[in-house]
Design brief:
Elements (H helix, E strand, L loop, with lengths): L1 H36 L13 H25 L2 H27 L1 H21 L4 H14 L19 E3 L7 E2 L4 H43 L7
Length: about 230
C-alpha cells in the first residue's frame, strides 16, 4: 500500500512539475515577445527594469526549478530532489521577504517612486533633443493615460504630445488631468489584494512541492539508493 502511495506521489510530482515547466516556458516566451514588441518601464529612470524583464526572470526561474523537480522525481535522484527542495525554499523565502518589505516600507517606497519620477521628468526636460530621454516618458504617459508627475503643469509651457487627451491638432488641446504618480498609486492599490492572494497561493504550492520532494527523498534514502546522492 505504501509503495502504491509513493508511486502515486512520484507521478503526481512529475505531472505537476511538467505543467509548471510548460507555464514557465509560456511566461518566458511572452516576456521575450513583450521585450521585442512592447516596452513599459516601471519608472522612467529605471527603463531597463521593465515588465518584460520581470517576466523573463520569472520564466527562467519557473522553468529551471520545475525541470529539476520533474527530473528528480522521474529518476528518483536524491541530489536533484534536494536541489529542488532548496531552490523552492529560497524562492519562497525571497517572496515572503519582498512581501514583508513592501508592507513595512510602503511609505518610503512611495516617496522613492515620486522622487524617481521627478528626477526622470527633470532629466527629460533638460534633454529635449535626446530621443531616448523622452521615449520612456511618452510611453509611460500613453500606457497609464497620465501627464507629468502630478499633472501637466510639471512640464511647464512645453507639454509633450503624449499628454494630449483631445483636440490634439488644435491650438488649445485638452491634456490628461491625472498625473502618473496618482495613476501608479491607483494601479498598485487595485492590484494589491490580487497580488497578496497570488503570493499566498504560490507559497502553499511551494510548501506542497517541498513536502513531496522531501517525502520522496526520505523514501529513496530508506530504500538504500544512496549512490544516487
Amino acid at each position: 500500500m505504501a509503495q502504491h502511495c509513493l508511486k502515486c506521489l512520484k507521478y503526481t510530482m512529475c505531472v505537476a512539475n511538467l505543467l509548471c515547466f510548460m507555464c514557465g516556458v509560456a511566461v518566458l516566451c511572452f516576456g521575450a515577445y513583450m521585450m521585442m514588441e512592447f516596452k513599459m518601464p516601471l519608472t522612467p529612470t529605471l527603463a531597463k527594469f521593465s515588465i518584460a524583464n520581470l517576466l523573463l526572470i520569472c520564466g527562467i526561474i519557473i522553468t529551471c526549478v520545475s525541470f529539476l523537480g520533474f527530473l528528480g522525481a522521474l529518476k528518483e535522484n536524491r541530489c536533484l530532489l534536494l536541489t529542488f527542495f532548496l531552490l523552492l525554499f529560497l524562492v519562497m523565502l525571497m517572496e515572503l521577504t519582498a512581501a514583508c518589505l513592501l508592507l513595512m516600507y510602503d511609505n518610503k517606497i512611495a516617496e522613492w517612486v515620486e522622487k524617481d519620477l521627478e528626477d526622470g521628468l527633470k532629466a527629460a526636460k533638460d534633454n529635449r533633443n535626446s530621443t531616448s530621454a523622452m521615449n520612456d516618458w511618452d510611453l509611460l504617459q500613453e500606457q497609464l493615460d497620465c501627464c507629468g508627475v502630478k499633472n501637466q503643469s510639471d512640464w511647464g509651457q512645453d507639454v509633450p504630445s503624449s499628454c494630449c487627451a483631445a483636440q490634439c491638432n488644435t491650438s488649445q488641446p485638452k491634456y490628461k488631468e491625472k498625473g502618473c504618480l496618482p495613476k501608479l498609486k491607483t494601479l498598485f492599490e487595485d492590484n494589491f489584494l490580487t497580488t497578496g492572494i497570488s503570493v499566498i497561493v504560490l507559497c502553499v504550492i511551494e510548501v506542497l512541492g517541498m513536502c513531496f520532494a522531501m517525502t520522496l527523498f526520505c523514501h529513496i534514502s530508506r530504500s538504500g539508493l544512496g549512490y544516487k546522492l
